[in-house]
Design goal:
By secondary structure, the protein is an alpha/beta fold. It has a domain of 153 residues: 2-enoyl-CoA Hydratase, Chain A, domain 1, CATH 3.90.226. The protein has eleven helices and nine strands. α5 links the parallel β6 and β7. α2 runs parallel beside α4. The protein starts with a helix and ends with a helix. InterPro entries: ClpP/crotonase-like_dom_sf.
Length: 236
């Protein structure tokens, strides 16, 4: 789904979203409440420019519009792989964006992410996955690392990873597997405006993904390990 069609369905009360070089920004009405919009389109690779503009929009909202909710619309092929961006320190720009979202959450701003087309690697980790909760449309493509790349990094044969992906969501892409792992809260179908309004009402800064992954059977060890680490770090 293209962002124009998406915006019409998400925001029947109206919006001012504009696109410039695959960067989306503007405001919209959700159940009578004004929300700030940031995002990307056209499977955009997230380079230093988009990362900085998204961070700037977050900080402007914090500075000028106290407690205004923020919606992140995600369509990205991931971090831009160019020598120029690497030399400029793209990792620092991405980290800055993630920190700005974390600051907004810790300051009481409700933040919802929605993967409406494609969400890959660093472009997803520092945007939609940083929100209070992230959702996806049924046809979305989601993965942090493709199986061929995973095979190169881990030295596990691609055939073995492909076999594992059939039964283990950790190895498999797609919104259904990320739902099972707790990475996304739900897959939206039907009235998107109603579901967005409900998501904003339910937004909670407490990270519940590990608990959701355990409950849904997609991640059996993330929560117990995190709890064990916290217990060991507690003062005697």
């Amino acid at each position: 789904m293209d962002w124009i069609t998406l915006a019409a369905q998400l925001f029947p009360g109206g919006h001012t979203i504009v696109e410039q070089d695959n960067f989306l920004t503007g405001t919209a009405q959700v159940d009578g409440v004004t929300v700030s919009i940031i995002g990307s389109s056209g499977h955009a690779p997230i380079g230093v420019e988009i990362a900085l503009m998204q961070a700037q929009t977050i900080l402007t909202t914090l500075r000028n519009f106290p407690q205004r909710p923020i919606v992140i619309l995600v369509d990205t092929q991931g971090q831009r792989l160019r020598h120029r961006d690497e030399m400029l320190g793209i990792n620092s720009y991405m980290a800055h964006l993630g920190k700005c979202i974390a600051l907004a959450r810790s300051s009481g701003y409700k933040i919802i992410g929605l993967v409406y087309d494609q969400a890959l690697s660093g472009g997803f980790i520092t945007s939609g996955l940083m929100a209070d909760a992230c959702y996806a449309l049924p046809g979305a493509t989601i993965r942090v690392m493709g199986l061929p790349a995973m095979a190169r990094i881990t030295k596990v044969p691609l055939e073995r990873l492909t076999e594992l992906a059939k039964s283990n969501p950790v190895f498999a892409p797609g919104p259904v597997n990320y739902l099972q792992m707790g990475g996304i809260e739900a897959i939206w179908d039907g009235d998107l405006a109603v579901q967005l309004a409900q998501a904003l009402q339910d937004a909670n800064p407490v990270d519940r993904r590990s608990a959701a992954g355990l409950q849904r059977g997609g991640r059996s060890q993330a929560l117990p390990v995190a709890q064990a680490v916290r217990a060991n770090d507690s003062p005697a």
